[in-house]
Design brief:
246 residues; alpha/beta; TIM Barrel; eight-stranded mixed sheet; two-stranded antiparallel ribbon; 12 strands; 22% helix
């Protein structure tokens, strides 16, 4: 089963696995964990174990039945490169991706070491966009160097939640950067200067920039349930996509 996505930069989600474990500060207030527990309480299919890592092989072939070209975010409720997911299962996921060239698949991970190791011995389908999360300097920035090793047609960074000033970023061989603040009742603030610094470096280095949201804090630094200018940065909405976007 795939579902329509509310994420601004994709169309549908496909979750052949659900559940995860926390490995860095960006995981602290995981939206997927909260949603998984809610779905477990509703007895939704696939969530009997809540947020415990669960492989769902019956979902592997879901995209095969959809002929209309679609942008899929893979594993919005998990991390495909989690240590406990066998290489054989990951290979099955990418086999489906390769068999459906009409679709575009966006795969995002915090397990950049395993990502690079996997693709050192496996091909990357042309229609797979590969990305890593970059929330801070200590954990996030080193993932970029690992992503650079992956011969993907599109490499992207999800700088969300942006938790601090990232300083100077080497964006060579990157094609797209998404920036966003944290949402939810315990959201940590994102400063305007941090987001602007990333945008300016994207512009200087020729990388597409997408501003997703302010999250739980507005551009004025005030906490609110929903910011009236939730996607506006420096007076405009940033919806740039990679040059080869469908």
């Amino acid at each position: 089963m795939t579902t329509v996505s509310r994420i601004e930069w994709t169309e549908r989600t496909w979750n052949p696995t659900v559940g995860c474990t926390k490995i860095s500060p960006g995981c602290k207030h995981c939206y997927a964990e909260v949603m998984a527990r809610r779905l477990q309480a509703m007895r939704a299919s696939g969530y009997a174990n809540g947020f415990e890592l669960t492989l769902l092989p019956d979902r592997l072939e879901d995209p095969l039945g959809r002929k209309k070209p679609t942008v899929y975010f893979v594993n919005s409720m998990s991390d495909l490169f989690h240590d406990e997911i066998p290489d054989a299962f990951i290979t099955q996921v990418f086999d489906v991706i390769a068999r459906t060239p009409q679709h575009t698949y966006q795969i995002l991970t915090k397990r950049a070491d395993r990502l690079a190791a996997f693709f050192s011995t496996h091909p990357v389908p042309r229609n797979a966009w590969i990305g890593v999360s970059v929330e801070d300097r200590k954990y996030g920035l080193p993932r970029i160097d690992q992503l650079r090793k992956v011969p993907a047609s599109i490499r992207f960074l999800s700088v969300e939640p942006l938790l601090e000033d990232l300083g100077s970023i080497d964006l060579s061989d990157m094609h797209w950067v998404i920036v966003g603040g944290e949402s939810g009742p315990k959201a940590r603030p994102m400063k305007k200067a941090w987001a602007l610094a990333v945008q300016q470096q994207c512009e200087a280095q020729g990388v597409a920039f997408f501003f997703k949201q302010w999250g739980g804090w507005g551009a004025d630094g005030k906490r609110r349930a929903k910011s009236a200018n939730g996607r506006v940065l420096e007076g405009r909405t940033w919806d740039e996509m990679p040059a080869t976007a469908p």
